[in-house]
Design brief:
By secondary structure, the protein is of the alpha/beta class. 46% of the residues lie in helices and 15% in strands. It has helices spanning 2-32, 35-39, 49-58, 105-110, 137-151, 164-173, 193-205, 209-229, 238-241, 262-271, 290-293, 295-309, and strands at residues 61-66, 72-78, 86-91, 114-118, 156-162, 184-187, 249-254, 277-282. Strands 1-2-4-3-5-6-7-8 form an 8-stranded mixed beta sheet, sandwiched between helices. Helix 4 links the parallel strand 3 (86-91) and strand 4.
Length: 314
């Protein structure tokens, strides 16, 4: 009996050690996976010619800050010609860059705001290997908010993000810093990147056995993430962040989004703790293209939201 007990204990130790090893491998694979292929999206993160041309031709200001880990982060600041103490930070999607945010510029200038387009880390001209899915991006956003306040004397700063950018805006707004911003507009955000990744990797690999392995390895993956970052999975889940969100928020989504189902936006809205929360669904619109497919409706929805919730900063 004692030999059997010792054998079982040895097997348990081996299983834990092996699980930790595989969990660490899974964490590293997760951080460096070809997400453009897995999610079926085009990689445009290096195509910055358009925004650089605008900087030159329209005298938009090229700016940069340093992240807390020392990476150089790049942005473009567009001053409102009327002068104002209000700004919005525009956050682009995965495998994009700040040029993706150009269609939103005129809308916010007309709303009386200055505009800051940023390249998220690992995208455009910002340094880094790629997204960290919120492990460091909230700190990056905080750096940009402080830059606007300290360098441009901005009293009101809002966030408008699309897809990955929407998720990062929610993560930032849902932590202890959320009192620093005036509003959040989250266009086509995911709720839980692990669940989204599970579904997409299964479809991409065409291997249903992946789900079984996923269930077994998830605790080890979570442990590896904590050891690497000292952060838990809950800290990079927009679905959890909205439960602590108190600033005004507008959720936008396309009814025909096949990458992130519209039910995700509805669930985020229902879970959101803000007393000023709104949701708008664009009919016949796919993922993150509402401003292209429904421009007038998009602009009217954003204008109505801002006029409804904003306390004048000037």
């Amino acid at each position: 009996m004692k030999k059997l007990r010792n054998l079982l204990l040895l097997l348990a130790v081996i299983a834990v050690v092996f699980g930790c090893y595989v969990g660490n491998v899974a964490y590293n694979e997760f951080m460096h996976a070809p997400w453009d292929q897995i999610l079926g999206i085009e990689n445009h993160k290096g195509r910055v010619a358009t925004v650089r041309a605008r900087e030159k031709n329209k005298n938009w200001e090229a700016v940069n800050i340093s992240g807390r880990d020392g990476l150089k982060l790049r942005g473009t600041y567009i001053a409102n010609p009327d002068g104002t103490g209000k700004s919005v930070i525009l956050l682009h999607g995965l495998y994009q860059n700040r040029a993706m945010s150009i269609p939103f510029v005129d809308m916010y200038l007309a709303e009386g705001r200055n505009v800051l387009l940023i390249d998220q880390r690992g995208h455009g001209e910002s340094e880094g290997e790629g997204t960290t899915w919120g492990l460091r991006e909230a700190d990056d956003i905080d750096g940009w908010v402080r830059w606007l306040r300290n360098q441009k004397n901005q009293r009101s700063v809002g966030l408008h993000g699309v897809s990955l950018g929407a998720a990062m805006a929610l993560l930032y707004a849902g932590n202890e810093r959320n009192g620093d911003i005036a509003f959040v507009i989250a266009d086509s955000s995911y709720g839980n990147i692990i669940d989204l990744g599970k579904e997409k990797i299964t479809a991409w690999s065409d291997n249903r056995d992946f789900l079984t392995g996923y269930t077994v390895l998830l605790p080890f993956f979570r442990a590896a993430m904590f050891l690497h970052t000292r952060k838990t999975m809950g800290q990079i889940e927009p679905a959890r962040a909205v439960q602590s969100l108190t600033v005004p928020v507008l959720f936008l989504h396309g009814a025909n989004d096949v990458l992130i189902p519209v039910q995700t936006a509805e669930a985020l809205y229902e879970a959101c703790a803000s007393r000023q929360k709104y949701i708008h669904i664009f009919a016949d619109s796919a993922h993150a293209v509402g401003i292209e497919t429904n421009y007038n409706e998009y602009r009217r929805t954003v204008d109505d939201f801002l006029h409804r919730v904003e306390i004048p900063a000037d």
